[in-house]
Amino acid sequence: MRSWANRPHSSLLASFLAASWLLVAASPQELHEASGSRILHHTKSHTHEVHCSRERSRAAWKAVDEYLMPFVEKEKYELPSKCRLRPENDMFREQEQHKIHFDVNEWRCGFCKKSFRAEKFIDQHFANRHSNLLDNSQGRCLADLCGALHCDLTMEFKKPKSKCNAAAAARNRHLCESLADSCFPVNQGHSASRLHEFFLRQFCDAHTCNGASKPFPKGGR
């Protein structure tokens, strides 16, 4: 008869042999996936959380860059520091400037030179590996201005049209007019006054439900 003292050793030995057998039986892919899931979990737990849409911020900057900046440059006008449309007030601007687009299916990170097959993957890479380059301070989320800047018209995947909401249109118009006032103060000279009027016509007039005005009537680049 086995003694009671030997039973714990037998149990430990059996557990060790079972674990060893499972390790040998597991395929390399299964081991890799198990390891990868742990790494992914570890990475996610250390990812800096950002409450700002990168996609909508990109659409907002596209609207500014295509439909506003050519006219600002023509006037040789410098946007004031309090203007939220300045490039440095886009928290993703530095990362976006370090995207290198070689071909339809080839993107490269300008920081570490890694390559990716689609823009969404390099966006994920920036979020996971280069989040330290984001300045997530107040007022630097360009996506917050999308209502005023007609982002839905510049996004790659456009939303289907919905019935016009008069209250939302009024809010967007108010935001749009506040941008015109802060970026182009009419008391700052002729260029600022002309650009203030231009901004109202180019972006703000279309915030109505009567359909009389369309966004960007002055054209762009």
From TrEMBL:
InterPro entries named in the record: Znf_C2H2_type
Occurrences of domain C2H2-type (ranges): 109-130
- Give the signal peptide range: 1-26
What superkingdom heads the lineage? Eukaryota
Per UniProt, the keywords (alphabetical) are: Signal
Name the PANTHER family on file: RE51073P, ZINC FINGER PROTEIN-RELATED
Full protein name: C2H2-type domain-containing protein
Its lineage reads: Eukaryota, Viridiplantae, Streptophyta, Embryophyta, Tracheophyta
